[in-house]
Amino acid sequence: MISKKKPSFPVTGRFHRYLMDYEREFEFHLRYEDLWGWTEAIALEDKKGTNSLWETLIHLPSVRSELDDNLKHLYCLLKMAGDMSAVKHLDIDRIDFCHFANSHPFRIRVVNSYNDNQDYFYIKKADANRVYGLELEQLLSPNNLNFLLKGDTLVEEHIMGIPGDDFLGGYFQRPGINKVRVCKEFVKFNERCFTRLLGDMRAYNYVMDVTLDFDEEQYRVRAIDFDQQSYEGDIKVYLPQFHKENKPVVELVWELLTPDTIRQYQVEERALMTRRAKNNWARINEVLDCMVHDDISTPDKVKELGTGLAKFHRNDDFRACASMGDLLRKNLVTVLNLDEVR
């Protein structure tokens, strides 16, 4: 069961030092609070004319001018490692805000004035679970992920793809779609989430990245919401197959894939994760050491998850884990057979 509203946990000094060592933390002028103080907000509709839950903000011209300069410089820092040569042909087209997400994000739309190409990035109030989730995504998944932190201000690049709920509701029904490939990728995604204890992957918390292969489409499921990294106590929260929003693809998995094929795809994904973990184990251990010393959940949830993992793995050592960091390390070592690299 997922908590109705997860509290936000601060990024601590130890984790800040880790992020600085690995160039995730930078000096930049803009702070999350600087984007508040708008004079008007206009509800933003999606292409179907329904409320998107985002609002486009209007700031005073003097305020907006300063914001635009800082946002363009921040975009260059995020995307071009601080090379400011592109600032002159970038425009901040829109600043949006969402009240309903836990992180209360601002979404910034950037337009290249030479060719009208659009890009987005996000500014959020930093939450330790989310930052841990972003870092672990970079280290353990097949996806590269760029983000920056300064104090309690988090800056994230946009993750492109079709929102999971849109994909399952419409795109999934298109003729010619390779549903076996979709099922395969969902099995792999399910395996990744459970192994690294990323929770709450309901359909609207991930996107489907669709690329054209030489003969047909290829798919990859990508998480976009990392607030539930190692927070909840219910083991089912970390298995996307149990979320009702994913029912259409779960039912198709059981219809199109045999148990042996499902097992094959799980083993494939574990093998890939094992290779990544071994290549990055020193750095992953540093992240886990930070997690061990951080409060990113409650003692009751740590105990509940430890009990659930002990039953799942038939290993009572999980019951002795005193933190989410301990549980995640034990789960990685157990699922990926990493004893030899410890």
CATH class of the largest domain: Mainly Alpha
The CATH architecture of the largest domain can be named as Orthogonal Bundle
Contiguous uncertain segments of 5+ residues: none
Question: What's the number of structural domains?
Answer: 2
| Structural class category | alpha+beta
Using only C-alpha atoms, the radius of gyration works out to: 21 Å
Number of helices: 10
Q: What coarse outline follows from CA principal-axis ratios?
A: globular
Measured distance between first and last alpha carbons: 33 Å
What is the strand arrangement across the widest sheet? 1-2-3-4-5-7-6
How much of the sequence lies in strands comes to: 15-25%
Topology of helices and strands:
Blueprint (H helix, E strand, L loop, with lengths): L12 H9 L18 E6 L5 E8 L2 H20 L9 E8 L8 E7 L5 E8 L2 H13 L6 E4 L2 E5 L4 E2 H6 L9 H17 L10 E7 L4 E7 L23 H10 L2 H21 L1 H12 L6 H15 L10 H13 L6
Antiparallel strand pairs: 1-2, 2-3, 3-4, 4-5, 5-7, 6-7, 8-9, 9-10
Structural notes for this entry:
The chain has 342 residues and is an alpha+beta fold. The protein has 2 domains: 13-157, no CATH class; 162-341, Phosphatidylinositol 3-kinase Catalytic Subunit, Chain A, Domain 5 (Orthogonal Bundle), CATH 1.10.1070. Helices cover 40% and strands 18% of the residues. It has 10 helices and 10 strands. It has helices at residues 13-21, 61-80, 128-140, 164-169, 179-195, 247-256, 259-279, 281-292, 299-313, 324-336; strands spanning 40-45, 51-58, 90-97, 106-112, 118-125, 147-150, 153-157, 162-163, 206-212, 217-223. It has a 7-stranded antiparallel beta sheet with strand order 1-2-3-4-5-7-6. Helix 5 (179-195) packs across helix 6 and helix 9 packs parallel to helix 10 (324-336). It is globular, with a radius of gyration of 21 Å. 35% of the residues are buried. The model has no long low-confidence stretch (mean pLDDT 93).
